[in-house]
Amino acid sequence: MTPHIRTPRLIVALVAVLALVASAVAQAPPGTPALLQPHGNPTGPGYVTATPPWYYQVVPATTALPWPTNVSLLDVLATQGYNAAGGWTINRFDLPGNYRLDSYFAFADTVVEPPVYGFPGSSNNWTGSGGAFMALGLAPNAGATLPGDGRVHWLQVLHTNSPYNALNPIADGDWSWYIDNDANKKNSPFYDVAFGAANASGLVDDPSRPYGPKHWRAYTFVAAEDRRGGKKELYVANQGVYWGFDDPPASPNAVPAPGGIVLAGMSLCTLLAWRRAKGLLGKKEAATNPGLAA
Fold this sequence. Notes:
By secondary structure, this protein is α+β, with helices and mostly antiparallel strands. The protein folds into two domains: 35-250, no CATH class; 255-281. Helix content is 20%, strand content 36%. A hairpin with a 6-residue loop joins strand 12 (214-226) and strand 13. The protein is globular and about 55 Å long. Mean pLDDT is 81; it is low at 1-30 and 250-294.
């Protein structure tokens, strides 16, 4: 009798479960806009070597924000008085359009920044440091307007183990959370007001840190406000972009992220199932065709 091909049920079950978990990990929340990537992600070098053993690597930009459970956006805004106690009302809204990744790359020691959004390009010498260059564009829907007074602003929240010019950061182990607004010197939470490096077309940033085990992450949002008639209304898009860099990107003993573990497990289980099925198929062919070797 010809034997049936039976892939072990345990392997099949594992593949199915891991596939479901991977789907949950990889998918962005409903309503998340696409991150347009006309030039790739990153658009230039994703990894550069500085003075050995240091190197810098960008984190793939994404609109699927990996926001933690122990700290919220409202918590970070409250550190500078942007909350009800400070007289502010915080509102969220869906971005009427998409974000566009126009330029994004790692650099070390020097960085050549392209002209973008009306800002002139430049070449900067950051000897002994490295980081990432980001030009994040706003691609609004036709006729779209923002709430509040309608003007486009940018809010950027940082999460890093190397804080700089941070006002009232929230400690998170060896890392810190804070608003990227030059320590609120201009009484505004917005990146564009603090640094002048963003407008209605997009945001430009080139964070860097000296050589060492540094990690830097940004959560970047389109935002708006309304201060007319004494109002203190802050509007932050529900959707944002997560990006950043590492130096070094990982230690030799680093544990893969959950998504990586899931995908690796899926690949292993799929390979085992395929090899098992192939072995049984070979036995079936040998049984039905004596000319085949075992």
